[in-house]
Amino acid sequence: MDVESRAGVEHGKSLASKISSALRRDLMEGVFRPGDRLPSESALSREYSVSRTVVREAVAILRADGLVHARKGAGIYALELPQEQDKPFKDLTTERISSVIELLELRTVFEVESAGLAASRRSAAQIEMILDAHRSIGECLATGMPTRDADFNLHLAIAEATQNRRFPEFLQLIRSGIIPRGELQGSAPGSRPKDYNLHLQEEHGLIVDAIIEGDADLARERMRAHLRGSLDRYKVLLRSKAKESEEITQA
After folding, report:
1. Domain interval for residue 68
2. Which of 9, 20, 120, 161 is placed for a possible disulfide with 126 were both Cys, Cβ 3.0 to 4.6 Å?
3. What is the mean pLDDT of the chain?
4. Is the pTM of this model over 0.70?
């Protein structure tokens, strides 16, 4: 397959993933209730300005996840959503330092490889998305706005550049537990001390540079350092909280 053809296939997969994510959100938010008929292929094709082939791929993703089913000659219908107890990470919370540490350990394994694959596979368009996300964090810092969402969007853009839809899907799955530092340290929701944010932005810049350069090993190394730094800081914070609790108990 030549480069142009491969780019077309990857673009199609990316569109299908985005449309399936949008439909998944509609299902989760109750736009389509169990038993409801989803819009037809032609309607979805018009709504998202894509071919029917892309729509079929998006629906296939939802079918594989057990969210919809096809009735021959009748269309696609929404199924009952998984019960809460069946959902992974259902007890994920940013309110417990121990929970954040658990998640950071998981992210260190997951996002290190994500950065490496992104460096090897990223397209020109995805480089632009990564750069835009990185610039957005800088704009938030310059204007004093919370950086939580912008920070997540950068990590998501890197995950999307892996060309493996499971990477961004997984990040979306654990989104509620990502970037929780401000809340745990007692600052306003979504915010963190500016100096700390500037330090993280410098680390982000190093990761972005490695991905742009196509250096997979360096991208992995820098992402590992970025997440390990956060993990180490939280372990110190956890020990500090434990010590405070012990002193209060003994008082």
Report:
1. 3-81
2. 161
3. 81
4. no
